[in-house]
Specification:
InterPro entries: Prolamin-like (IPR008502). Keywords: Signal. The N terminus is likely disordered. 71% of the residues lie in helices and 0% in strands. 29% of the residues are buried. By secondary structure, the protein is mainly α. The chain is globular and about 40 Å long.
């Protein structure tokens, strides 16, 4: 699953779906943004790294806020990342809104 591969290693636990079709939806979200930009978004959220305008365009125009939030919900469900849930909740809107500013759209 592409969305999961952006976040976890192959040998890590993937929890049960919170609702039917959730992982399929995540897969589609991941395909919209691509692996390179998906990893960039994850690093922006988890490690406070900058995100390129190119990846911001992918995030805002291709992926959208809903997919961004769903993938981050998945992120915090992972045991290694769950401890950083507060950080993810704080960074989630900051990263998205920063991208919106970079691509020149109103929030």
């Amino acid at each position: 699953m592409m969305a999961a591969s952006m976040v976890v290693a192959d040998d890590e636990f993937i929890p049960p779906e919170p609702e039917p079709g959730f992982y399929e939806a995540l897969q589609k979200c991941g395909q919209k943004i691509g692996l390179e930009c998906g990893e960039s978004v994850v690093k922006a959220v988890l490690k406070d790294q900058d995100i390129s305008k190119k990846c911001c365009v992918q995030l805002v125009h291709k992926m959208g806020r809903s997919c961004h939030e769903d993938l981050l919900w998945y992120l915090i469900s992972q045991p290694k990342i769950g401890a950083n849930a507060t950080h993810v909740f704080i960074k989630r809107p900051q990263v998205y809104n920063s991208c919106v500013s970079k691509v020149g759209l109103e929030i």
